[in-house]
Amino acid sequence: MKRRVAVFSVVPSPYQRDLFAALAARPELDLQVFYLEAASPDSPWPEKPLQSYERILPGFWFSLRGARVHLNWGWPGVGQFDLVIVNTLMSLTAQILMRGPLRRKPWIFLGEKLGRRGGWHDHLAAPLHRSAGIAAIGSWAQRDYAERFPEPKTFCLPYYCELAAFLAQPPPELGAEPVFFFCGQMIARKGVDLLLAEFAKLERGRLLLVGREAELPEMLAAMPSEVRARIEYAGFQPPEALPGFFARADVFVLPSRYDGWGVVVNQAVGAGLPVICSDQVGAGHDLVVEGENGVKFTAGDGPSLGAALRKFVEHPELIAPYGEASRARAKAYTPEAGAARWVEAIENVLSA
């Protein structure tokens, strides 16, 4: 008999939809996915048709302390499902479900590492103590959830996204100087200011930037012209164009001051790139092995980031073997691999 599983998620992001498609294809599951909105106002993703197992719930959102808070209606009765997966805390819809109907049903919370503790943050997270399981997005998050919520089972279930187009790219041919690559929003939380400052100290190398412009003009304003000449900003790019940009790079850099996961790291290892990331990037704890396929540094520490950049400028012979190690790790993070691990977690919870 198939397990009837419902997922309540915020928006149809392409990375989650890759996993949902693989889950829907599993013979053990009958999957239904309910989104709280069709697209966020600043969504970087082009809208694509929903699959038969996906549905947008009617409702609206309002802003509260800078966050979008959703209120929806028309969701199906949860009693018809064997298991419900909830992928948001900052939502009236989720809070109503967790504090009401799901008190009588097995359910799993799916989420990245939580941020602040105390006050209203703890109030929003309180229902997790009563969940049957927590699907932590990565081992960094799992350790934190296990400490904060000892009652439910915890599972390490990172983001699994389609990497075929990245894996299909040929290994990069190293040029006269390494090309460092950043992909994401050009904001301080992502550490772009720190990256620009340390890159400016390098005597050689180029920097390729892709993503929403955000704070980039202000960050570049004080850069010397000779440094800016070595920086290329290619703007925001749709997901299908990204493999080509990764193929132009030699080393990927994600210097975030905080990133709950960072799917761009999945893409970087799929593209066969060494990865430099901070210790506050969730994906770095699972996908980046120091001295094997990348370098990790203390978030916000400019000198240690600078040392990581110089490592590949001064030792370009490391780029190829580090890149090969990245590709090897990527093969364990396909949607099909993720779906198999999810089925195990679901059975673990339902057989308890």
What does this structure look like?
The protein folds into 2 domains: about 5-160 and about 335-350, Glycogen Phosphorylase B (Rossmann fold), CATH 3.40.50.2000; about 165-330, Rossmann fold, CATH 3.40.50. About 35% of the residues lie in helices and about 20% in strands. It contains 14 helices and 15 strands. A 7-stranded parallel β-sheet has the order 3-2-1-6-7-8-9. Strands 12-11-10-13-14-15 form a 6-stranded parallel β-sheet, sandwiched between helices. α10 (about 265-270) links the parallel β13 (about 250-255) and β14. The relative contact order is 0.13.
Structure summary:
This protein has 352 residues and is of the alpha/beta class. Helix content is 33%, strand content 20%.
